[in-house]
Amino acid sequence: MPLRYYGAHSGRWSGQDKVNLQNLPARDPTKNTLKRAIKAPPGYVIIDCDSSQIEARTLAWLAGQMDLVDAFANKQDVYRIMAAQIYGVAPDQVDKTQRQVGKTVILGAGYGVGHAKLRLFLKTGAKVEVSEEEAKRIIDTYRRTYYRIPELWKRADTALAMLAAQMPMPVDAQQLVHVVPGKGLSLPSGLHIQYPDLRQFADEEGQLRWHYTSRGRIVAVYGGKCVENFTQAVARCVVGEQMLRIAKRYTPVLTVHDAVACIAPEEEAEEAQRYVEECMSWRPRWAGTLPLACEAGRGASYGDC
User: Do 107 and 127 belong to one domain?
Assistant: First the structure.
């Protein structure tokens, strides 16, 4: 499959040659025809394994939000826990719609989104409509409950200033991401997230904002966006190392964000799936306390997984 090895700003893989298999439809039965058209060679099966909630897990870990980290590690329903905080009920009293709101908040509010965007997320993703006042209350509840995550946004704001001033500083609670003068934000892979020509100037509302140049365009960046960049980058480092372990026995043929697809002989299908799940649950040496989980499926085609 055509993939650009370091396509996104976070270092994630992206499409290549005008083909982007990162965005193939997943749930629409009609559009899923494209995924079913990707078939294993004769005598082989495709195993597709997705790293569950890796961004939310990595964000909580980098922020040092240990109650959320522990909830993930103990396989608790973090969406239900969030919904219980939002609606002021016990977790076992959370209904299906409330849990969906909790899920949207956990997965969507971690990078500084405001109430207006949350309303859109809830309407389009969770099929739940809330008032502007209710959306503000939900955002406030999230930020108050998991207060170390907003603190990480503020540290990232400071990190941008230090990067512009060419001064070093540690950014996250795990001491993985550092401002490295002249290079950018360090990653466990040894690579760096760069913000070329980083500077501040006023936006249309007269507020000073950080901007950098990417592919000839001026791009705005702020604390929450910076956290999104290095959270996704660290997650990519995890999946990259896991993929190398998979490759010792089975050939990876595609990666889509935080999922890895590989092929294995039909007679080894069950054993191969167990091995892939083991690899996708494995933690790199530098991420010994990061709680990971995965889900896998297999079939004759990519769509069957």
Answer: yes
Q: Measure CA of the first residue to CA of the last residue in the chain; give whole Å.
A: 17
In a domain, residue 262? The reply is no
Structural tokens at position 232: 């996704």
User: What's this model's pTM, rounded to 2 decimal places?
Assistant: 0.93
Provide DSSP, 85-115: HHHTS-GGG--HHHHHHHHHHHHHSTT---H
Helix axes 223-246, 54-63, angle to 10 degrees: 120
> Does 170 fall in a domain?
yes
Q: 221 by DSSP, 3-state: which?
A: strand
How far is residue 12's CA from residue 231's CA, in Å, rounded to a whole number? 11
| Cα–Cα distance for residue pair 62/46, rounded to 1 Å | 33
Count of structural domains within the chain = 2
Q: CB-based contacts of 280: which residues, under 8 Å, 6+ apart?
A: 49, 51, 239, 242, 246, 260, 292, 294, 296
3-state secondary structure 279-303: HHHCCCHHHCCCCCCEEEEEECECC
**What rounded mean pLDDT belongs to the chain?**
93
Give the pLDDT confidence score for residue 33 in this predicted structure. 83
Query: Which pLDDT tens digit goes with each residue over 187-241?
Result: 999 999 999 999 998 877 778 899 999 989 999 999 999 999 999 999 999 999 9
Least reliable range by pLDDT among 31-45, 60-74, 98-112, 145-159: 31-45
Question: What are the phi and psi torsion angles at 69 (to 5°)?
Answer: -60, -45
The last residue of one of the domains, among 198, 224, 250, is: 224
* Domain span holding position 121: 72-145
CA distances from 125 to 94, 165, 182, 210 (A): 19, 40, 40, 30
Last residue in a domain, options 114, 145, 176: 145
